[in-house]
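Its record is set out here:
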Amino acid sequence: GQFKKLRFTEKYLELEIKVPDGNSWKWIKVKKFIPDRLKKFLPKAKRTCAPIIKKVYLKSGFYIYRLVIPLEFEVKFSEKNLRVFAIDLSPSEKRLGVGAIVTPEGHSRPLFFSAEKMIRKLERILKEISNLERKIDNIADEIHVTGNKEHKRRLEKRLKHLFVEQKLKWKKFTELRKQILEVFTKLILEHARAYHCSFIAVERLKFSNLPDWKHPRMRRFFSQWFYSRFVERLKQKALRYGVKVLLINPCRTSRICHRCGKAGLLEKLEFLCECGIYDRDYNASVNIGKKALQ
């Protein structure tokens, strides 16, 4: 829709929007309370951009139109504070990633980010979807071969019910997947702010070496999706608090030791070196942080 006269008062958001009215269009006035979340960031915004209307599907199957007010921020990054929160991603059954605080003087102990319970829930939903797909295929085959009209009618009714159930399962899967991403990016930002880090360093993500899963479809429907959206979402959130996200070339971050600089061996979640045995992702996160400082 078209908007005009967007105005903010102390408590209200006022605007006019053009909506369809039969064969024509008409302008209507809208007056809404400003949500607390928008009220929090409104004074910090450099300017307010043109509003957007998004179509949002509800759990009930219905949909609503949501009004989105984009804000533009002017962010100043502190170059003096050389504290980096480095994170190595490995979205898998055991963990989402491992972080470390890296400074010119040294580095912290590992910070493990795990979502094992939620990951297991995702796997369970995906298995349920696979079972539904098998049932749908079997019933569809039976419909083609049956000659009894009454039996065919009952099968078609059952098939329709299974399609609705499958759709609801996929919606539940995507909502939970998004929730994991939101919580994970929030935790990273909170850790970076708590330790007074001006930068968050992550590897420039690739899709060539994704973690293996017991459930093979999780590799496609979770790992690839997670990798493709993580950096963009983290940048959006970090901008609000003046934290800069650095993309680091991952070359050799997992192959060399963060302590002595020599090449080592990888064995599952361990990095084996002459000077000791370290967590694989922790070793990579420290190397990512050191590259960010350079």
About this structure: The radius of gyration is 25 Å.
